[in-house]
Design brief:
The complex is a heterodimer of chains A (413) and B (922).
Chain A: H1 17-40, H2 91-94, H3 99-107, E1 111-115, H4 123-126, E2 127-130, E3 141-146, E4 166-173, E5 178-187, E6 190-191, H5 197-211, E7 224-227, E8 230-232, H6 235-243, E9 253-257, E10 265-273, E11 296-301, E12 306-308, E13 316-319, H7 322-328, E14 335-348, E15 351-362, H8 373-384, H9 389-402
Chain B: H1 3-9, H2 15-31, H3 33-45, H4 51-63, H5 70-81, H6 85-98, H7 104-121, H8 130-136, H9 143-159, H10 167-181, H11 188-201, H12 206-210, H13 212-225, H14 231-247, H15 256-269, H16 272-297, H17 311-327, H18 343-358, H19 363-373, H20 379-391, H21 398-418, H22 422-439, H23 451-464, H24 469-484, H25 496-510, H26 520-533, H27 540-557, H28 565-590, H29 593-599, H30 603-615, H31 623-636, H32 644-655, H33 661-678, H34 683-698, H35 707-721, H36 726-744, H37 751-775, H38 788-800, H39 806-823, H40 825-835, H41 838-845, H42 850-861, H43 866-879, H44 887-907, H45 916-920
Helix pairs in contact in B: 1-2, 1-4, 2-3, 3-4, 3-6, 4-7, 6-7, 7-9, 9-11, 10-11, 11-14, 14-16, 15-16, 15-17, 16-18, 17-18, 18-20, 19-20, 20-22, 21-22, 21-23, 22-24, 23-24, 24-26, 25-26, 26-28, 27-28, 28-31, 30-31, 31-33, 32-34, 33-35, 34-35, 35-37, 36-37, 36-38, 37-39, 38-39, 38-40, 39-44, ...
Biased composition (Basic and acidic residues) (chain A): 18-36
Main location (chain A): cytoplasm
GO cellular component, one term (chain A): nucleus
Chain lengths: 413, 922
């Protein structure tokens, strides 16, 4: 029966500084625990490592721009951080890179489709088609590291221990100043690398709109983002992708294997295909925009004279005599342009046997990579016996016929 | 043994006599507890014995039944219950008999002991006749016995929880108590005892307060008692009103006008003790309405929540003038007296609460008072005006206050410099602090601090820090909030040009000879901490320079030899402030790579100092030093390993500190820091740490709030040492399992219990996450498979309860993902068994949430392959929660689902059997 001896706080803040210290410590510990867990979950970190073995030229294609908002101004390139060649960077560190370092780093994170030389099996079951691959002649493929306005309620310090990053694979379309998003690699600090294409696209579709990134540009984002529609690769899906109207210049179709994880570099699990109906640039043009009379290819010279493609492992297309290279002042690592003569390309059982190459000169300095095997073969087939839309359609109908069995329902797994 | 004499000796001023008597009592108790207790009760009941021995006998009895520490209390309860019932009856008879004793002290002591026994026995359905026997003859009793009986009922209501007494008995108790309060009762002692008893019995009156007639009667009697000629009765009656205001807020509508009249009269005319309670009534109403309005604001669709009756808003025109009058009744030098509490302080505090309740409406009612008094020659008027202004700064909108503050600010700065009254300066500095606290910061549209006045503000505050301690302390406080308002400006803070001077002034304050008064030194260090927290890159070098300075201060505290008890306490306090400051500095410098690198040159020396601080004490660990070490481990990373051999014993000591559970909790957190810093290098210490943590968990002495953190710590350890956690699995897993089972049962728990349960669940889940992640990619993954069913069951039970919070949901989803990721194919069928159900999917399809519906449709399109099913189920889980789902939860979920989907991809588990009817459903 204690009498009510209540003294309220008089001229005192309700929380002491000591309590504040305890709470801040606790929050730091919670944040560190969370970071440690995220790291353990291999999220947004280890896969994004910068290996020192590869060296890229200053300007590379694809061109990479780093949009890091809300700090839209970049430091000049010559102030960029010292060469991080021996470091493994995770994406947060990488986002601090500026200029060319950033471009190099992000360039290597992109998945590069191979060219479709043959129709894959089970096209309608295992593949998705995105409507028309847009590009200008100098393709502007961008890996966007973008800070969406943060929703994290527990942001602790000004140093921003919980900043979250999203990395989008997109193409910049100059005409409407829009980034067309073709894939999502990292969402708010969580890697989607290990997720299937199907899942990534679903996530991309549901999430991007929510952020407001698709809204007209505002002070939070300079450019509009837009989604590229994605279709199941059945008859109607393929038709929509092939013939549907789009607000941008079409350049072929992209096919994704539903089950494929995002994989940096060339991959046969994403394929590009085009014909005259869906692309202005079916056959490669030269620097003046003219279609050369003979197919041209770019190959890399090795120290032993071998000429290779950019594939991993590379495909050997030919050989230059040492004497010739010395006379022409060529060095290992040079990218060289050749034309394919009347002898053409000879393949046996899908393997290249012989190529009739004629040396043309060094390639444009802006080039970062040699051509890939699939690109050369695709260009070759376009000139000789192209893979037609009818072939794709036929492949779908035939597999639809055989696709009535019970095993085909596991599409999304 | 001559009990009386021993009891008297035990109160002797001669220490050796006292010691001897205490020893004999202890010996007696150990040899024959029943006889010991009987002897004491007989001593208490015997009117022939001296009152001193009787009182002590009663006190020892009481202490044999109850203790502060929870575990000791439980022991005593068990001990009493296991006594022979004849013994207990004998004791009870003596106690009841004592209620009739002519000695007031004996009666009072007996009533407390009876209540303690009732507190033990009534919940066990023992002593059912107690209340009946107390009440049976109450009307025929002589006044002194009646008074003792009512007092006993009061104590009993304090000891016993309302649900163990049936309504019939409650009615009888309340009737007796309220009748005892009635004005017709001539005896003041009886009335007072009855009024105090009612205070405790109010918690039992839920049913009676719902009945209009009964409530009217109780309220009438209470209100009449506030008019009693006896001051103690009036005070007790107002205490009842205060209690009613919070317990029965929603029942007050018919009475509030009368209560206002009664309280207004008491505040203006009655003695201070009564007036304070009358003001407290309105403060308490404010508390209630602030809570209710906060709930309204949070948009909770609480169905059972109490509506706001806006009593304060309605009473405002009369209430505010009444409170303003009290502000003029200050005591001289009240600011120098730590424990002071008077009508002016209570009135101003209430005014502040009123402002928070009604917001803008209060401003026009207070402004005339401020304008009229602030320039008066009498210091009381100036101080009251300033205090009124300071009190209303929290609540009203910035739009309303900013123009007024802009005018007042320079007046305040002048007053702080020139006013002759310390009291006025104290309140002025406090008011400036409130201005900065509530109206200054990056979220304000119109800044009150501008480049034009910033310099002057800082100059005045720094000058004021040289004033008398209570004024200087308030100036430090104002500077604290000034800095806090610039918390998120970067890279350049308006404080930068002054920071050197500010830091220097604060350090000077800490060295003032009178810094021990008015907690001035503490305030100075706290402000220094805030300056450090809010520093920017520009001032990083200044923070860095502070490191050796504070280190030197800490070093100096370690030099003193042979300290007295008092000096030792002061030394500990100062070390606490310095370690706290270093902790803040380490955390700040450690958060950026550049400054961390520069700071680490001091790491060895700082650690050395912390170890010496620990060594100053014999049995306990300094909490602040421990916290600082956590920050240091975070900053140093794996280099911290070199400190472990010396530090380990203190770590263990901290983990053993059951009594000061804060210390234990902080140490558990530091173990986590060290795990993350050392990773597998912590392995050599893990046996010791784990066994201590397991001991902590099994202890019923340790405060329960530490236990969730211990589970989280298991996760930290497992993550650090990976598969080496194997040897602890057999101990940790059963602990986790039983805690998980415990936390699954939440039915009937109150909010506080649910909150604790969620903290506990979170800890358990973090442990599971850490363990799974630690074992990932290890050949020993198989060891975890046997635990998976239970963990999944636990997750299911969490999902099915609707009371989990956001954090638990996130952690739970994470655990599911970790389980899937680590166990891979082993988990596939388990997961499907656990969360799959077509009922869920159907519910999803009928959901209103477009995202969920869309996903369900999507799943349908995909012909319900298992991964899409899991995906939909996950979204369903989200939809079942009543709160807004945050982005982070959704992301966590997506990952988990990706992990799970991976399992199914790799193992081609294939389609779920869901029946064709589902697919047709819309």
């Amino acid at each position: 029966m204690a009498p009510n001896e209540l003294h309220r706080l008089y001229k005192r803040p309700p929380i002491s500084d000591q309590q504040k210290r305890r709470e801040l410590s606790l929050r730091r510990q919670e944040q560190s625990r969370r970071d440690a867990q995220l790291q353990a979950r291999r999220l947004a970190s280890t896969l994004f490592s910068l290996s020192s073995s590869q060296t890229l030229e200053e300007t590379s294609e694809p061109d990479i721009d780093l949009v890091s908002e809300p700090q839209p101004d970049f430091q000049p390139e010559n102030e960029s951080v010292s060469s991080p060649s021996d470091l493994d960077l995770d994406v947060r560190q990488a986002s601090k890179l500026r200029g060319s370092e950033a471009r190099k780093w992000f360039a290597r994170q992109l998945m590069l489709p191979e060219w479709m030389i043959d129709v894959p099996d089970r096209l309608s079951h295992d593949w998705l088609a995105t409507r028309s691959y847009i590009t200008t002649d100098s393709r502007q493929r961008n890996c966007q590291c973008h800070h969406f306005p943060r929703l994290c309620p527990a942001c602790l310090t000004a140093s921003g221990s919980c900043q979250s990053y999203s990395i989008l694979d997109c193409i910049f379309h100059e005409m409407d100043q829009t980034y067309y998003v073709i894939d999502m690699i990292c969402w708010r600090g969580y890697s989607l690398y290990d997720c299937t294409a199907e899942f990534r696209f679903f996530w991309l579709n549901s999430k991007l709109a929510e952020t407001g990134a698709c809204d007209p540009p505002s002070q939070y984002h300079r450019y509009r983002f837009s989604l590229v529609p994605i279709y199941t690769c059945d008859q109607s899906g393929l038709h929509s992708a092939y013939a549907g109207a789009v607000p941008y210049v079409k350049d072929g179709l992209l096919f994704y294997n539903k089950h494929a994880h995002y994989q940096p570099g060339n991959t046969p699990l994403a394929l590009v295909w085009k014909d005259e109906n869906c692309s202005q640039y079916v056959i490669d043009t030269d620097s003046k925009g003219q279609v050369p009379s003979q197919q041209q290819v770019v190959l890399e010279l090795l120290h032993d004279g071998k000429l290779i493609t950019s594939d991993d492992p590379p495909v050997v297309f030919g050989f230059l005599e040492l004497e010739f290279t010395q006379k022409s002042g060529l060095h290992p690592g040079n990218l060289l342009r050749f034309s394919i003569g009347n002898g053409g390309l000879h393949t046996v059982d899908g393997k290249l046997e012989k190529a009739d190459l004629h040396y043309f000169g060094k390639s444009n300095r802006a080039r970062a990579f040699a051509d890939s095997y699939s690109k050369i073969m695709f260009q070759y087939s376009v000139r000789h016996s192209p893979l037609r839309i009818d072939d794709l359609v036929a492949s779908i109908s035939s597999s639809d016929d055989e696709g009535n069995g019970p095993s085909d329902v596991e599409m999304a797994v | 043994m001559e009990v009386t004499q021993v009891l008297l000796n035990a109160q002797s001023i001669d220490g050796s006599v006292r010691k001897h008597a205490e020893d004999s009592l202890k010996q007696f108790q150990e040899q024959d507890l029943p006889l010991f207790l009987i002897s004491l009760s007989q001593e208490l009941s015997n009117d022939e014995k001296p009152v001193e021995s009787r009182k002590l006998a009663g006190l020892i009895l009481k202490n044999a039944l109850d203790a502060k520490e929870q575990h000791r209390k439980l022991e005593l309860v068990q001990r009493w219950l296991s006594l022979d019932s004849a013994v207990k009856n004998q004791i009870k008879t003596c106690l009841l008999q004592t209620l009739s004793s002519p000695a007031p002290d004996a009666r009072s002591t007996a009533s407390q002991v009876i209540a303690k026994i009732a507190g033990i026995e009534l919940p066990h359905k023992q002593w059912p006749e107690l209340i009946g026997s107390l009440l049976s003859t109450i009307h025929q009793l002589p006044p002194h016995v009646k008074q003792a009986t009512l007092e006993t009922l009061g104590y009993l209501c304090e000891e016993v929880s309302p649900d163990v007494i049936d309504q019939d008995q409650v009615n009888k108790v309340l009737t007796a108590v309220v009748q005892g309060m009635n004005a017709s009762v001539g005896n003041n002692d009886v009335r007072l005892a009855a009024t105090r008893a009612l205070y405790n019995a109010l918690g039992f009156a839920q049913v009676n307060f719902s009945n209009d007639m009964e409530r009217d009667y109780i309220m009438r009697v209470v209100c009449e008692a506030t008019l009693s000629p006896e001051v103690k009765i009036r005070q007790a009656a107002f205490e009842c009103l205060v209690s009613i205001s919070s317990s029965y807020y929603e029942k007050l509508v018919p009475y509030i006008q009368d209560i206002f009249n009664i309280t207004a009269k008491a505040v203006r005319e009655d003695e201070e003790a009564v007036a304070l309670q009358a003001i407290e009534f309105w403060s308490s109403i404010c508390d209630e309405e602030i809570d209710i309005l906060e709930e309204y604001g949070a948009d909770l669709v609480g169905d059972s929540s109490i509506p706001c009756f806006y009593f304060i808003k309605q009473a405002l025109p009369a209430l505010v003038p009444m409170l303003l009058e009290t502000l003029l009744k200050q005591e001289e030098d009240q600011d120098q007296d730590e424990g002071a509490w008077n009508i002016a302080m209570a009135g101003g505090t209430c005014l502040g609460l009123v402002a928070r309740t009604v917001g803008d409406d209060i401003v026009p009612l207070v402004m005339p008072f401020i304008e009229e008094n602030i320039t008066k020659p009498d210091w009381r008027q100036r101080e009251a005006a300033t205090y009124a202004f300071g009190s209303i700064l929290e609540g009203p909108s910035a739009d309303k206050l900013t123009p007024i503050v802009n005018v007042a600010l320079s007046f305040m700065l002048t007053a702080l410099t020139n006013d002759p009254s310390n009291h006025v300066k104290d309140t002025t500095a406090w008011t400036l602090g409130r201005i900065f606290e509530f109206l200054h910061g990056s979220t304000m549209d119109a800044p009150i601090i501008t480049p034009a006045n910033c310099q002057q503000i800082i100059t005045v505050l720094l000058q004021s820090m040289k004033d008398v301690p209570n004024v200087a302390e308030k100036a430090c406080g104002a500077l604290y909030f000034l800095a806090q308002g610039y918390e998120d400006v970067s890279p350049s803070s308006p404080l930068t040009p002054f920071s050197q001077e500010i830091v220097q002034s604060l350090l000077t304050v800490t060295h003032r000879e009178d810094a021990g008064e008015s907690r001035l030194r503490t305030a100075a260090y706290e402000t220094l901490n805030e300056i450090v927290r809010c520093s920017t890159d520009e001032t990083a070098s200044m923070v860095l320079q502070l490191v050796p300075v504070i280190m030197m201060e800490l070093h100096n505290t370690l030099e003193g030899q042979k300290l007295s008890l008092d000096e030792r306490e002061k030394q500990g306090e100062l070390q606490g402030l310095l370690c706290g400051c270093l902790q803040v500095i380490i955390q700040k410098l450690g958060s950026s790579e550049t400054t961390k690198y520069l700071f680490l040159q001091y790491a060895d020396q700082i650690m050395g100092l912390f170890l010496r601080v620990f060594a100053c004490r014999s049995a306990t660990v300094h909490e602040e030093a421990m916290l600082a070490i956590g920050a240091l481990a975070y900053a140093t990373g794996s280099d911290f390993a070199k400190y472990m051999p010396e530090f380990y014993k203190y770590l263990e000591m901290g983990l053993q500190n059951f009594e000061e559970y804060q210390v234990c909790a902080v140490t558990v957190g530091v173990v986590g820091d060290i795990c993350r810093a050392l990773e597998d290098k912590i392995l050599p210490y893990c046996d010791g740490i784990m066994s201590q943590l397991l001991k902590d968990l099994s202890s019923n002495q340790l405060h329960r709030s530490v236990k969730p953190a211990i589970f989280s710590c298991f996760g930290d350890i497992a993550l650090a040492i990976g598969e080496s956690f194997e040897k602890y699995l057999m101990y940790a897993m059963p602990m986790l399992q039983s805690a998980a089972e415990l936390s699954a049962q939440t039915s009937g728990a109150d909010d506080e219990m649910i909150e604790y349960t969620n903290t506990l669940r979170n800890g358990i889940l973090e442990a599971y996450s850490g363990i799974f992640q630690g074992f990932k990619n290890s050949p020993k993954t198989q060891l975890l498979v046997p635990y998976a069913p239970h963990i999944l069951k636990f997750l299911d039970s969490i999902y099915l309860e609707r009371d989990m919070d956001d954090l638990v949901m996130k952690t739970a989803i994470g655990v599911l993902g970790d389980l899937a990721d680590t166990l891979g194919s082993n988990a596939g069928s388990l997961i499907l068994d656990s969360v799959s159900s077509r009922e869920f999917l159907n519910e999803c399809l009928s959901s209103d949430d477009h995202l969920i519906k869309e996903s369900a449709e999507w799943a349908k399109q995909q012909k319900l392959s298992s991964s899409s099913l899991v995906w939909v189920l996950g979204l369903h889980v989200l939809s079942r929660c009543h709160f807004q789902t945050t982005e982070a939860v959704v992301v966590e979920l997506s990952l988990t689902l990706a992990f799970i989907a991976n399992i199914f991809t790799n193992n081609c588990i294939g389609t779920m059997e869901l029946g064709s009817d589902f697919v047709e459903e819309e």
